[in-house]
Amino acid sequence: MAKKSASKTGKKRPPLRRRRQSGNSNAGGVLFVIGLIGLGLFKPNVAILIAMGLLPTIVLGFTGKGDNKTRRTMSVGFANAAGILVLIGDVWSNSSAFNNMIVDVNNWIVMWGSAAIGYALNYVGPMIAAMVLQGLAQDRIKNITQEKQELVELWGHEVLGSKDDDKPDLGMSTRRPAR
């Protein structure tokens, strides 16, 4: 018997459109650019400082890949913003301090070094979480083993059952023969 073809009329179906994953939303970037342009109208020096200071975060936003791109970008962005906030107050109150601030290497170390801390958190964070979870699992195994030993001491080795039985005996000691 021959297999039926997918379409009887011979027309090809259009390819299915891929849904955009929720983690790859770009609305935050659009709002950032709009806010930066709005700030540039009132305080251009502050807007330039923010744009140059957040450059590591912007690069990660464009080049980052994977399921957790948004979370990684937020981690680096928040650390980077913390380094920039230290300097924004001086430029906001005194616009002439902007030129001196841009040429000072220490300010670049503060701004981009805080982004480096965000990158380090992205790299080291999962390893630390894995170690913590592994430690918690080992403690749980130790507690279960201790409870098992207490049950053996209280009820005897019969509580363990035989290794041949995969299923526990739930009070039905008489088994029916297979038909």
User: Can you count the helices?
Assistant: 6
Structural class by sheet pairing and helices: mainly alpha
Specify the helix fraction band: 55-70%
Give the C-alpha Rg: 31 Å
The helix-strand sequence is HHHHHH
The best one-word shape is: elongated
Number of strands: 0
Query: What proportion strand?
Result: under 5%
| Termini separation | 37 Å
Provide a quick synopsis of the model.
With 179 residues, the chain is mainly alpha-helical.
Give a quick set of tags describing it.
179 residues, mainly alpha, 6 helices
Helix and strand arrangement:
Elements: H1 27-42, H2 44-53, H3 55-63, H4 69-93, H5 97-103, H6 105-155
Structural account:
The protein is mainly α and 179 residues long. It has a domain at 27-124. It contains six helices and no strands. Helix 1 runs antiparallel to helix 2, helix 2 (44-53) runs antiparallel to helix 4 and helix 4 (69-93) crosses helix 6. The model has no long low-confidence stretch (mean pLDDT 80).
